[in-house]
Specification:
Elements: H1 3-10, E1 21-22, H2 25-35, E2 42-46, H3 52-60, E3 63-68, H4 71-80, E4 86-90, E5 103-107, H5 113-120, E6 127-133, H6 134-141, H7 151-159, E7 160-168, E8 173-174, E9 181-188, H8 198-210, H9 216-222, H10 224-227, H11 232-236, H12 241-244, H13 253-272
Parallel strand pairs: 2-3, 2-5, 3-4, 5-6
Antiparallel strand pairs: 1-8, 6-9, 7-9
Helix pairs in contact: 8-9, 8-13
The chain binds S-adenosylmethionine.
S-adenosylmethionine binds near residues 93, 94 and 112.
Length: about 280
């Protein structure tokens, strides 16, 4: 019997805390194998739970840093991993400072999927093997024109290559979640297209998808506050009309990047009082 089942037996998972523990040993092993961890690599885990995944990661990695918010779990984990190559970081993954890490491997708390992914992507790391709710994973990987193409697709794909590696059924967890899950490989890389102002680019994408059924011309005027731009009505007439006729889901990441750069130039001129 694997050691982790012993600890799982002590713990009553609390669904309100996103506690769905992965108990299928085959899937746990597959996740660790895919992560291809070497002895000179440090691994970050988010949401330790009973330490089932942690234990397998620790066998491969130089060091495992694992973040857990539930104090009752932390007390058990500190005992379990005493004197090992595992450091338990107590706290909310959205608030604590991440240590330096080479790879991140986690069965994420789904309620923080989006925020924690963007927090991760601000770090410099080689690879992420991350479990998400299946629908969320599909939005991460969707391409322009596909039904799941969304703000998340554009933003995540700006920072990384993303790929669904396997679907995971609810029965692999205890207690089973109501949703299917999927393991995603996240490989950070420089963006395929450059942007002059990343914050403006992301705000533009948010504004567009906030009103995804509207043509961009209207979505951008209505969402001008998201970008912090005044006089948007006049500005949209100076943006490419073919793009302004499209809806958010029809615009590719490269086109958003070009639009954001154009807006940056137009607003920079206005700010400095120069006219074109
Ligand atoms: C889906 S469980 C995964 C547990 C374990 N790694 C596994 O694979 O079975 C998510 C874990 O994250 C913890 N958690 C939830 N929200 C968190 C947060 N904001 N920061 C850190 N841990 C969190 C929960 O207490 C739970 O133990």
């Amino acid at each position: 019997m694997p050691a982790f089942t012993a600890l799982t037996a002590f713990i009553a998972p609390d669904k309100r805390k996103d506690q769905h523990f992965l108990i299928d040993l085959n899937i746990l092993k597959k996740i660790v194998a895919i992560a291809d961890i070497h002895k000179d690599e440090d691994v970050l885990e988010i949401g330790t739970g009973p330490g089932n995944l942690t234990e397998l990661l620790a066998q491969k990695a130089r060091h495992v840093y694992t973040i857990e918010m539930d104090p009752a779990l932390v007390a058990l984990l500190e005992e379990k991993f005493k004197g090992s190559n595992v450091t338990i970081i107590k706290g909310n993954a959205l608030k604590v400072e991440f240590p330096r890490f080479d790879k991140v491997v986690a069965n994420l708390p789904y309620s923080i999927s989006s925020d924690v992914t963007f927090k991760l992507l601000k770090n410099n790391f080689k690879l992420g093997i991350l479990m998400y709710q299946r629908e969320f994973a599909q939005r991460m990987i969707a391409r322009v024109g596909e039904p799941d193409y969304s703000r998340l697709s554009v933003d995540v794909q700006h920072f990384a290559d993303v790929e669904i590696l396997m679907k995971v059924p609810p029965q692999a967890f205890s207690p089973p979640p109501e949703v299917e899950s999927a393991v995603v490989r996240v490989t950070p890389r420089p963006a395929a297209y450059s942007v002059k102002d990343r914050a403006l680019f992301m705000a533009l994408v948010t504004a567009a998808f906030t009103q995804r059924r509207k043509r961009l011309r209207n979505a951008l005027v209505n969402g001008a506050h998201i970008m912090g731009i005044h006089g948007m009505k006049a500005l949209v007439s100076r943006l490419p009309p073919d793009l302004m006729d499209k809806r958010a889901e029809e615009v590719s990441p490269e086109e958003y990047a070009a639009l954001a750069d154009r807006l940056y130039e137009l607003t920079a001129h206005e700010r400095s009082g120069l006219s074109k």
